Amino acid sequence: MKFYGCDKTLLITVLLLSIFGLIIISSASVVMSYNNFGYNHYYLFHQFLYGFLPGIILLFFIQKTDYRLFKKHALFFLIITLILLLVVFIPGLGFGLKGANRWIDIAGISFQPSEFIKLTFILYLAAWLEKNKKNAKDFSNLLIPFIVVVLIIAIPLIMQPDVGTLSIIVLTAVIMYFASGTKISHIFALVAGGLAGLFLLVQIAPYRMNRFMVFMHPEIDPQGIGYQINQALLALGSGGILGLGFGRSRQKFNYLPEPIGDSIFAITGEELGIIGLFILMALFFIFALKGFKIASKAPDNFGKFVAVGITSWITFQALINMAAITSLIPLTGIPLPFISYGGSALITSLVGAGVLLSISRRGK
C-alpha cells in the first residue's frame, strides 16, 4: 500500500488506535465469546473480518481519491443513509436489541445505519455550508435551513431511539456551522435549542432520567439503575496505575455490562491502568491535533469543513465516552471510536480517517 503525500502521523495514529482496539477486544470479549458461541475469540475475529479488514481497505482507496469527488455525491449519500435509517423499522430487514431498532440484517450481514449517517451528514453539510458561506451571518438564509436539515436527521434517530448518536451529530454540526464564520449569537441560539431538546428527551424517557439521577447520586440503587457506572468505576479503581495485567480483568466475567462496547474504556483501565489509559488518550489527542491542522491547511472550504466535521465527530465521541465511564457526565451509551466492538462503527471511522488523509494530500 502506498501512502505517499498523506499525513503519516495521522495514518500511524489511526492504525495504532485500531490495533489497540483489537487487542483490548481480544481480552475483554473472551467470556462473552465463550458463553455465546463456545469459543473465546468470536468477537475478535468478527471485528477483524467485518470491521478492521474492510475498513483498512476502504481507507487505502479513499485516501488516494480526490476528496472533492464526495461533494458531487454528498446529497445522494445522505439520502441513501436516511432511507436505511427508516429501513430498520421494516420487519424482516430491521431488528432491535434491548428495546432499540438500530440494525439491518441482509443475507446474514448486519450493520447499523446510524453509524454511516455520521459521515454522510458531514459530507453533505460541508458541501451545503461551502455553497452558502456568503450567507454565513444571515439568520433566515442559513440558520433556519440548517436547523431544518438537522431535524430531518434527528427524527428517525429519536424514533429508534439513538439519542447518543443524535447528540454527536448535533454537536458536530454546530462546530461545523461555527467554522463557517457565523455569528456567535447563532451559536448561542443553537446551543440553547439543543439543551432544551435534550431536556425534553430526558423528561419523556424514564431510562434517560434514571441515568441523570444516577449521575447526580451514584449511591442510588447500586444493584439496579446505578449498577453499570458503579461497576465501571470499580474496574477503573482496581486497575490503579499499572493495571491488573493484560487479560486479567475481573469485571469482564459477567459483572460489567457491555465490556466490549460502551464500557470498554473501563476494562482498558482495569487491565492496563492509568498508564494504558494515558496512552489511549494521547493517541486521540494526536488525532485531534492533526485533524484540525489538516482543516487549517485545506485548499478549499469544503475540505476545511469536512476535516473539522470528521475530527470533531471522532474526538468528541471519544471524550464523551471517556467522561461517561468516569462519571464526569451521565452515561450515554456512546461507543469509543476505533476501540469498541462494532463493525459498522469501525468501518465508518476508518473511512472518515481516509477522507482526512485525502484532504492532507492536497493541503497547502
Described by the principal axes of the CA atoms, the overall outline is globular
Number of strands: 3
Low-confidence stretches: none
User: Which structural class do you get from the secondary structure elements?
Assistant: mainly alpha
Q: How many domains would you count in the coordinates? A: 1
Rg calculated over all Cα atoms: 20 Å
What is the averaged pLDDT score?
Answer: 89
What does the model show?
With 364 residues, the chain is mainly alpha-helical. The protein has one domain. Helices cover 68% and strands 4% of the residues. It contains 14 helices and 3 strands. Strand 1 and strand 2 form a beta hairpin. Helix 7 packs antiparallel against helix 8, helix 12 packs antiparallel against helix 13 and helix 13 runs antiparallel to helix 14.
SSE layout and pairings?
Layout: H1 8-28, H2 30-37, H3 42-64, H4 69-72, H5 74-87, E1 94-97, E2 100-106, E3 109-111, H6 113-131, H7 139-159, H8 163-179, H9 184-204, H10 206-216, H11 227-239, H12 264-296, H13 301-325, H14 343-361
Antiparallel strand pairs: 1-2, 2-3
Brief digest:
This protein is mostly helical and about 375 residues long.
